[in-house]
Design goal:
Layout lengths: L6 H13 L5 E11 L2 E5 L5 E3 L6 E2 L5 E6 L4 H9 L15 H10 L3
Parallel strand pairs: 1-5
Antiparallel strand pairs: 1-2, 2-3, 4-5
Helix pairs in contact: 2-3
Length: 110
């Protein structure tokens, strides 16, 4: 399973933003990528958070809010990554193609 931000994670981030007294501010678009079987996006401040297809990005480090840019072949990316039995090897960066992921799988004997 490729994990997305869930309600519990979102509450944790919202709590951090409130506790730290961070002012929410627009950071524009952030690109989603897969890290260790989790959809994540980086904030320009250096923070990173799990992301959801149903909500905007919210950074728990600075309060930055932005829209998440999702790859068009998201389901195919997830399918190729889910062939990998070890979660730590399920990684995808923008610019990598599904064909590249499948080639990596073949190279690893998957």
């Amino acid at each position: 399973m490729i994990r997305y931000e869930d309600d519990r994670q979102r509450r944790r981030v919202e709590h951090a933003v409130a506790r730290l007294g961070l002012a929410e501010h627009d950071i524009g678009q952030v690109a989603a990528y897969v890290n260790h079987s989790r959809w994540v996006a980086d904030c320009p401040c250096g923070g990173a958070e799990l992301v959801s297809r149903h909500r905007d990005f919210l950074c728990g480090s600075c309060g930055g809010q932005g829209t998440v840019q999702w790859p068009r072949p998201r389901k195919q990316i997830e399918a190729a990554l889910l062939e990998r039995p070890v979660e730590g090897t399920r990684n995808w960066w923008p610019g990598e193609t599904v064909a590249m992921l499948r080639a990596e799988n073949l190279e690893a004997g998957i």
